[in-house]
TrEMBL record:
EC numbers, comma separated: 1.1.1.47
Residue span(s) of domain Ketoreductase: 11-208
InterPro entries linked: KR_dom (IPR057326), NAD(P)-bd_dom_sf (IPR036291), SDR_fam (IPR002347)
GO molecular function: glucose 1-dehydrogenase [NAD(P)+] activity
Protein name: Glucose 1-dehydrogenase
Family note: Belongs to the short-chain dehydrogenases/reductases (SDR) family.
SMART domains documented for this protein: PKS_KR
Entry keyword set: NAD, Oxidoreductase
SUPFAM superfamilies assigned: NAD(P)-binding Rossmann-fold domains (SSF51735)
Pfam families recorded: adh_short_C2
């Protein structure tokens, strides 16, 4: 198969939840393509196994440009601080709303506080990131791209995920509606829908998850026969943010090893 390269030289990307997992992989990939990266996360240290270097340090240590901003995506002032930091590099060109949390629970026992936490981060965080980034783009007359992290849960229900699935479904519709409303402003809005990805977000991922991807952890096996990894997902963000996807908006791009079609 052929190879693909992207050039984001001179552009600035804000990645929420960029300290770990998919966000970390996306931040590193954008930096590798020449972008300046603002890593916006509630914590600086990565949660990934075998990862000890903060994302922004990993990028700068390899010659890239990056900075960290402590960010609670449910707090408007925090999100504004992250977008303002992007102004130091010229202003946000790509906003990646990736931060998310999960709380498992049956409909009869999911705690209201856990439900609120998921909506605060997963839905409110995407809305604030989209809103504040779009305001900045319009203020600078520099329309860019917004890419959200959705999920296979945006379309497909899973046992014990009533709250999480609801928030990811909301992200799907937020993406589509924001894409419609911002199209006249030249701002494209899309979302990546990862499948079973081996990250610490999955509550202490173990080797058994690779077996589960081939068997029945998600009610059906993954056709490609393995769990995904953050590096499998990161290129989807770059493509959606690139000129190659210049006629794509309101899209939910699945990166799930074929799970949703099996």
């Amino acid at each position: 198969m052929g190879t693909v390269s992207y050039d984001f030289d001179g552009e600035t990307v804000v990645v929420t939840g960029g300290a770990s997992g998919i966000g970390r992989a996306a931040a590193v990939a954008f930096a590798g393509a020449g972008a300046s990266v603002v890593v916006a996360d509630i914590r600086e240290e990565p949660k990934d196994r075998d990862a000890t270097t903060p994302t922004h340090d990993l990028i700068t240590d390899t010659g890239g440009e990056a900075t960290f901003v402590e960010t609670d995506v449910s707090t408007p002032d925090d999100v504004r601080d992250a977008v303002e930091r992007a102004r130091e590099y010229g202003g946000v060109d790509v906003m990646v709303n990736n931060a998310g949390v999960n709380r498992h629970g049956h409909p009869t026992d999911l705690d209201a506080a856990d439900l609120d936490a998921m909506y605060e981060v997963n839905v409110r965080g995407v809305h604030l990131g989209t809103q504040i980034a779009a305001e900045d783009m319009l203020d600078r007359d520099a329309p860019g791209c917004i890419v959200n992290t959705a999920s296979i849960s945006s379309n497909d229900a899973q046992h014990g995920q009533v709250g999480y699935d609801a928030t990811k479904g909301a992200i799907r519709m937020h993406t589509r509606t924001a894409a419609l409303d911002l199209a006249d402003d030249g701002i494209r809005v899309n979302a990546v829908a990862p499948g079973q990805i081996a990250t610490e977000f999955s509550e202490g991922w173990t080797e058994e998850a690779e077996t589960g991807a081939r068997e029945d952890d998600l009610l059906k096996p993954v056709p490609l026969g393995r769990a995904g990894h953050p590096e499998d997902v990161a290129p989807a963000f770059l493509w959606l943010a690139s000129e190659a996807a210049g006629y794509v908006t309101g899209e939910l791009l699945h990166v799930d090893g074929g799970w949703q079609v099996s």
